[in-house]
Design goal:
There is one protein chain. A hairpin with a 6-residue loop joins strand 2 and strand 3. Strands 1-3-2 form a 3-stranded antiparallel sheet. By secondary structure, the protein is mainly α.
């Protein structure tokens, strides 16, 4: 009897997984128009006067890294400058590799082309226990119809974060369908959260 119950629970879990996968497949997609717009805006971003001087170095280092097979897990040894804190082209990226890289301060990021590993020399650390919430903000939060939730709609939140901002219809995003799928899996594993 216990084996039958366990098998039944496995079937229910598998059906739930199939539904979630199908929902994500529909939600985490990009139309050809959206992809073209992202590539156009990504190229414009790379050619901005503040960044264009680094573009030849980025292209050279990307080509060299791809020729070597890409970077499975970034490290200080793979980090190049210029461009500032580029650490290689992501090879065989998985949620587990994102976690391992994050433990050393690296993250996958790109607007166009293959995902690339990056880091920053200076990072912000936010200690939630030390944060102060002003009285006015508390008062406003009590008056509003909005409510704050955590992890109730991760897929919808990450999709909304990838959408253009109000008033900026040509917004550029690094949150591509591939990133959405990777971080949704990280959410399933308990490492990524929505607020």
């Amino acid at each position: 009897m216990a084996n039958v119950a366990a098998s039944f629970l496995e079937i229910i879990a598998a059906e739930g997984e199939e539904d979630r996968t199908a929902r994500r497949r529909g939600l985490f997609r990009e139309t050809p128009r959206d992809k073209l717009l992202r590539w156009t805006m990504g190229a414009a971003y790379a050619c901005h006067p503040k960044r264009i001087a680094d573009l030849p170095f980025l292209l050279w280092n990307m080509a060299a890294d791809v020729t070597r097979g890409g970077t499975t897990l970034p490290s200080d040894a793979t980090t190049r400058s210029p461009p500032d804190t580029f650490a290689g082209v992501c090879r065989d990226i998985t949620p587990e590799r994102i976690i391992a890289a994050a433990r050393h301060g690296f993250f996958p990021w790109c607007h166009i082309g293959p995902l690339k590993w990056w880091t920053r020399r200076e990072r912000m650390v936010l200690f939630l226990g030390e944060q102060h919430m002003a009285k006015r903000l508390r008062r406003e939060m009590r008056k509003t119809d909005y409510r704050v939730t955590f992890d109730e709609a991760f897929d919808d939140v990450i999709k909304a974060c990838a959408e253009p901002r109000k008033g900026l219809p040509l917004g550029l995003t690094w949150i591509t369908p591939k990133i959405m799928r990777l971080y949704a899996t990280l959410h399933d594993l308990g490492f990524a959260h929505s607020f």
